[in-house]
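User: Reviewer 2 asked us to show a designed sequence for the structure in our supplementary figure. I'm pasting the structure tokens here. Could you produce the per-position amino acids so we can include them in the response letter?
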């Protein structure tokens, strides 16, 4: 559960920067939420590896407490302060798309959202973010490929289902400032699949 919480809470920052590209024009509470999302991202990227090791060793340490606080208190605070500007974008839509495949049911929400952040980064052409997160995910044991979620990128029928569900008009992926088509989303999945940190 800790690992999934890390993945879901990392999305607070990566989705917020899409939802609020000009935060200086927004109310102070929203800016506070965005600033907290960035601080939480930093805690998670810097302390999660140690916190996961401490959990494995059943040690209550500052790193473990900081990561748990970032997930529970920080994540809630970001959503409360940031309102709709710190909620969901493409990462959560990718999660929703993956849920159409029964083999992904065993993976927790945050695990699939974490993978969705990678797809969102690919869609936005953020290779630096993709490299940073791929490296971090490999250290934390979050998925960096569809294969780690038991999805075969070469199974066209399954990928088509995921893409169709992810691109439904009600999905938050449409908040991205890019033109979205099945082909662009497929290209993003393929980029993540072959990306080397």
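Assistant: Here is a per-position design you can include in the supplement:
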């Amino acid at each position: 559960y800790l690992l999934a919480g890390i993945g879901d809470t990392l999305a607070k920052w990566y989705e917020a920067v899409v939802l609020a590209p000009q935060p200086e024009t927004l109310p102070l509470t929203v800016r506070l939420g965005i600033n907290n999302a960035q601080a939480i991202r930093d805690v998670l990227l810097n302390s999660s590896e140690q916190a996961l090791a401490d959990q494995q060793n059943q040690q209550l340490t500052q790193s473990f407490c900081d990561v748990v606080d970032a997930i529970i208190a920080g994540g809630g605070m970001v959503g409360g302060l940031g309102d709709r500007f710190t909620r969901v974008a493409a990462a959560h839509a990718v999660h929703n798309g993956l849920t159409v495949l029964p083999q992904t049911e065993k993976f927790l929400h945050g695990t699939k959202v974490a993978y969705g952040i990678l797809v969102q980064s690919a869609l936005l052409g953020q290779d630096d973010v993709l490299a940073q997160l791929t490296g971090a995910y490999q250290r934390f044991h979050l998925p960096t490929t569809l294969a780690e979620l038991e999805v075969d990128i070469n199974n066209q029928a399954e990928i088509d289902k995921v893409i169709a569900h992810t691109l439904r008009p009600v999905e938050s992926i449409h908040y991205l400032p890019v033109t979205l088509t099945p082909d662009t989303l497929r290209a993003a999945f393929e980029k993540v699949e072959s990306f080397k940190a």
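For the response letter, you might also mention the following. The chain has two domains: 2-86, 90-194. Residues 100 and 180 are 20 Å apart (CA to CA).
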